[in-house]
Specification:
It is built from twelve helices and 19 strands. It has helices at about 10-20, 60-70, 95-100, 110-120, 125-130, 135-140, 145-160, 170-180, 195-210, 245-250, 325-335, 390-410; strands spanning about 1-5, 25-30, 40, 50, 75-80, 85, 90-95, 185-190, 210-215, 220-225, 230, 235, 240, 260-270, 280-285, 290-295, 310-315, 345-355, 375. The strands form five sheets. The chain has a seven-stranded mixed sheet. Strands 9-2-1-13-19 form a five-stranded parallel sheet. The chain has a three-stranded antiparallel sheet with strand order 10-11-12, with no helix packed on it. The longest helix has 19 residues, at about 390-410. The protein is globular, with a radius of gyration of 22 Å. The structure holds flavin-adenine dinucleotide.
């Protein structure tokens, strides 16, 4: 069977790895590199750094199997992921129970209510919560002050202006996944040398087995041609689309549920000093042009880079925000009282399709893998609910490939 895969991110690459030995697979990737959200920059000293901050989690078993197949298990390391809040100009650590108890912007009873909510998160019925907004649910459970001072900065750092439309199912599932932190905080996974090793490894395997990865090759026309498909003028027996459903509909005219998406504008900076008080992930409770400040070198050892690497993360919907790069830089210098030469370099990554927005009743919008003569999988597929992840996209790629193998039996 001759297969076209639209999109060279983790879903497309992981599906291709399953299909390429038995089938003739072409991957079309619009950018000059593969990896999608997990692609990386190469820094001046030859080290790489992800365009968007990444770490993995203890339960990412399919990711670990893939690392093992690519002989990368030896590079997987578990590092301490500390968190904090930046409020009224101060960065407060909020990782260990004593730090949480000392945080001055929540009362003891707010903290107790939040603690109880986390404790109960694994037992809630997320199907029922899919119809309720996170805002209404949380205000009802812990009150308005705890919502504004604790949950709102978290929701803003993940969803920007879409924060009010997110479902309680998403928030409670997230709390359930992330609440096993232990007293010292969570251990998060990273690949020594960067996740670029994973993408390079997958690409290498695919090329070895004859898969063609067409970079700088956006899919721009998709037409049915009898039971086949014509993609950019070439005929295929079927297509796997890993691009957002709305984009596939625009290019092919095929009807799909309109999964709501948001964009991400993420700045990466090299700095001459630490500005995050030794903390990895700082949620901005103060208003800023970024929802979180993620200090990569407070997670991965600083000595590997010789400079402090920081991400400024923001999400948007609709048009790509103008002047974001300058706004972020200006704010950073002013807020942290830095001289301009403290910034050694900066890079900006903008992805208009950075992830779904898990709105109220989102579950009803999750499309099936198999459609009429074609397949669709990606950040919007079942393994990526309630949160898109590397693991979710690897599993989505593998699950859709199984469906495609059954479909392919008729070509044998
Ligand atoms: C800011 C950010 C932080 C993240 N942090 C983490 C984390 O810490 N841990 C974790 O597990 N996960 C994280 N993720 C999620 C993880 O990166 C994604 O779930 C995963 O990489 C998505 O892979 P994908 O292939 O499904 O989608 P994508 O990576 O979006 O791949 C889709 C590909 O399709 C291409 N494309 C689009 N249109 C076309 C077209 N017309 N023709 C051809 N190609 C096209 C795109 O360029 C892209 O390469 C993060 C994501 C973001 C955005």
């Amino acid at each position: 069977m001759k297969i076209c895969i639209a999109g060279g991110g983790l879903t497309g690459l992981s599906a291709a790895l399953e299909l390429t030995r038995a089938h003739d697979v072409d991957i079309y990737e619009k950018l000059p590199f593969s990896g999608g959200c997990l692609s990386s920059y190469t820094l001046s000293k030859g080290t790489t750094i992800e365009r968007f901050y990444h770490h993995c989690f203890q339960g990412d078993n399919n990711l670990f199997s893939l690392l093992s197949k690519l002989d990368l298990t030896k590079d997987l390391e578990w590092l301490k992921g500390t968190t904090g809040y930046h409020k009224n100009g101060v960065t407060f650590p909020l990782t260990s129970p004593p730090e949480i108890l000392k945080y001055p912007y929540l009362t003891f009873f707010d903290k107790l209510r939040i603690g109880l909510l986390s404790f109960r998160s694994k037992k809630v019925d997320t199907v029922r919560l899919d119809g309720i907004s996170a805002r209404d649910y949380i205000i009802n459970k812990v009150g308005e002050r705890a919502y504004n001072d604790f949950f709102l900065p978290l929701l803003t750092s993940k969803f920007g202006e879409n924060k009010d439309s997110v479902s309680a199912a998403w928030l409670m599932s997230r709390i359930a996944i992330r609440s096993d932190r232990g007293l010292e905080g969570e251990r998060l996974g990273y690949i020594k040398g960067g996740f670029s090793k994973l993408i390079d490894g997958m690409e290498g395997e695919l090329r070895k087995s004859g898969c063609e990865i067409k970079l700088s090759s956006p899919v721009s026309t998709i037409k049915r041609s009898g039971s086949s498909w014509e993609v950019n003028g070439t005929l295929y027996d079927t297509i796997l689309s890993t691009i957002p459903p709305r984009e596939f509909t625009r290019l092919s005219g095929e009807a799909l549920p309109d999964t709501p998406y948001q964009g991400a504008a993420c700045m990466t900076l090299g700095l001459d000093r630490d500005i995050a008080n030794g903390i990895y992930w700082v949620n901005m409770a103060d208003k800023a042009p970024y929802g979180a400040l993620i200090a990569h070198t407070n997670f991965v050892p600083f000595k590997r880079y010789g400079e402090h690497i920081v991400y400024l993360a923001s999400y948007f919907s609709g048009q790509t925000p103008k002047d974001k790069r300058e706004d972020m830089k200006r704010d950073l210098l002013k807020r942290f009282k830095l001289p301009s030469d403290a910034i050694l370099w900066d890079k900006m990554a903008v992805d208009p399709w950075a992830g779904p927005v898990y709105t109220v009743r989102y579950r009803e919008l999750i499309p099936k893998y198999e459609q009429k003569g074609y397949f669709i999988a990606g950040m919007f597929s079942p393994p990526n609910y309630p949160e898109r992840s590397m693991e979710g996209s690897i599993v989505a790629g593998q699950e859709v490939a199984e469906k495609m193998k059954c479909f392919g039996e008729k070509f044998e």
